[in-house]
Write a structure and sequence with these properties.
Blueprint lengths: L12 H50 L8 H23 L9 E8 L17 E11 L4 H11 L3 E10 L2 E11 L15 H22 L9 E5 L2
Parallel strand pairs: 1-5
Antiparallel strand pairs: 1-2, 2-4, 3-4
Helix pairs in contact: 3-4
Length: about 230
């Protein structure tokens, strides 16, 4: 056989048809792939815009007179309203018994019982004082019994109490009555009781209760701040 002779392999019509079909499929795939990717991107972008517009529409329903606002002005108004709501919530919480994350004790002293505070009929206001004591700490089963014993040892009479517990924390507001048995001047050390000593004794007792509650909750992963002060 000569070197330049070519070997010819006949191809059947079926094999030739399959070859053309494969070539056409590859060509169509290469042309349609970018088109499909572009369509998917446009659809995803449309869904994203629809979702944003839906959220903006909900915000417009919450903000008065916002129909003609553009998106930037609407979002600015929403931010301002959120700040105002947070400020109002902070002001309201000052008058509500809501436990906080901070351990604290506050004592307010009223030497003259003439501020519209309801005193039980059997309690004499002469040479008597009222103390408003507020403390917040970790809740525990024996907290109230310990509190009762502490107040009894200091000869305080509880004429008002407000308790609130939330998330393992408790806040207590007490209105306490103290009467000088010696009929002395409540502002004097001689012949009566010393107000400063009385307040300090109560502060020490409540501080111990708060500290015990914090120690009893050491098994939790907590980092509570502590504040103990007399209200001015």
């Amino acid at each position: 056989m000569a070197k330049n002779d070519t070997i010819y392999c006949p191809v059947s019509p079926q094999e030739e048809s399959i070859s053309f079909q494969m070539h056409d499929f590859q060509a169509n795939s290469s042309r349609s792939s970018p088109v499909t990717s572009s369509q998917s991107h446009r659809q995803a972008e449309k869904r994203r815009r629809d979702r944003i517009n839906g959220q903006l529409a909900r915000l417009r329903k919450l903000v008065p007179m916002s129909d003609k606002m553009d998106k930037a002005a609407l979002l600015e108004r929403v931010v301002d309203q959120i700040k105002e709501l947070k400020r109002e919530t902070s002001e309201i919480s000052k008058f509500l018994t809501i436990p906080t994350d901070t351990d604290d004790v506050t004592i307010e002293f009223h030497a003259n019982i003439d501020q519209g505070i309801a005193i039980p009929p059997d309690k004499d206001t002469k040479n008597a004082v009222l103390i408003k004591a507020t403390f917040c700490c970790e809740d525990r089963p024996d907290l109230i019994p310990d509190l009762v014993r502490a107040l009894k040892s200091l000869k305080f009479t509880t004429i008002g109490a407000d308790f609130a517990s939330l998330g393992g924390r408790i806040k207590t507001v007490l209105l306490l009555y103290y009467k000088d048995d010696d009929e002395g001047n409540c502002d004097s050390k001689e012949g009566g009781f010393d107000v400063s000593t009385l307040k300090q004794s109560l502060m020490s007792a409540l501080t111990r209760l708060v500290s015990w509650s914090a120690a009893a909750s050491n098994f939790r992963v907590t980092s509570k701040r502590q504040r103990f002060f007399f209200a001015s």
